[in-house]
Amino acid sequence: MNILIVEDHQELASELTDYLSDTGYVCKWVSACEIALEELHSNSYDAMLLDLGLPDGSGFDVLKAVRKAKSKIAVIVITARGELNDKIDGLQLGADDYLTKPFALTELGARLYAVIRRIHGFSVNELEINGFTIQLQDYKVSYGSVAISLTKKEFDIFQYLALNKNRVITRLQLTEHVWGDILEVNSDSNFIDVHVRNLRKKLDKHTKLDWFETVRNVGYRINLEL
């Protein structure tokens, strides 16, 4: 899943990026309100870690713009401000959670996972898809008792399609979800198709995949209505 980190302190931003990347997230760091708004307009994110004291304004301005646009992005406000009024203002403007600096990275990780899980509509740590078990938090896939070795990209694709079952997911959507910033990749490349093909080969060893559909010239769908 893709995380936008809006933080003007480079050392903290680097710590957050390293920790969350090791946990399996795709992270993008920006340091100002204007850049954050441009990034949110250009790319799709599942969650945002938002500092309030930014060099060109308040993080609250970013939060207002996000909620005005009716975005479903999960937002955790991260700030040195611990005053009750700031917390109340942030939550009333649409923040999903609030962390006061300093905080433990493990606490942030737990809160982030809980917020994403709640906002994006999945309430369990495992998904069952036609005999396959996807362990969302542990990044593992198995068929029955047999563990299946997937690369990080293959897991992210399978997870995203499973979470959006019965919906057609375009190649662009998969690119944004798995690679993060679509401006940093070649949108004409067939890398998505290559990864999906490799994923299908690994899953196909265990059962028929007539439910894992390729929608020609569009993208892919896990169709559980078959």
Write the CATH architecture name of the largest domain: 3-Layer(aba) Sandwich
**Portion in helices:** 40-55%
Instruction: Supply the CATH superfamily name of the largest domain.
Output: Response regulator
How far apart are the first and last residues' alpha carbons, in Å? 28 Å
Mean pLDDT: 85
What is the C-alpha radius of gyration, as a whole number of Å? Answer: 19 Å
Order of helices and strands: EHEHEEEHEHEHEEEEHEHHEE
| Helical segment count | 8
Which regions are unreliable across 5 or more consecutive residues at pLDDT < 50? Answer: none
Count of domains: 2
| Strand numbers in spatial order across the main sheet | 2-1-3-6-7
- Category from helices, strands and their pairing: alpha/beta
How large a portion of the residues is in β-strands, by DSSP E? 15-25%
Q: How many beta strands in the DSSP annotation?
A: 14
Coarse morphology: elongated
CATH level-3 fold name of the largest domain: Rossmann fold
- CATH class of the largest domain reads Alpha Beta
Outline the biggest β-sheet.
5 strands, parallel
Secondary structure layout plus pairing:
Elements: E1 2-6, H1 10-23, E2 26-30, H2 33-42, E3 47-50, E4 53-54, E5 57-58, H3 59-68, E6 74-79, H4 84-92, E7 97-100, H5 105-119, E8 126-129, E9 132-135, E10 140-143, E11 146-148, H6 152-163, E12 169-170, H7 171-179, H8 191-204, E13 212-215, E14 219-222
Parallel strand pairs: 1-2, 1-3, 3-6, 6-7
Antiparallel strand pairs: 4-5, 8-9, 9-10, 10-11, 12-14, 13-14
Helix pairs in contact: 2-3, 6-7, 6-8
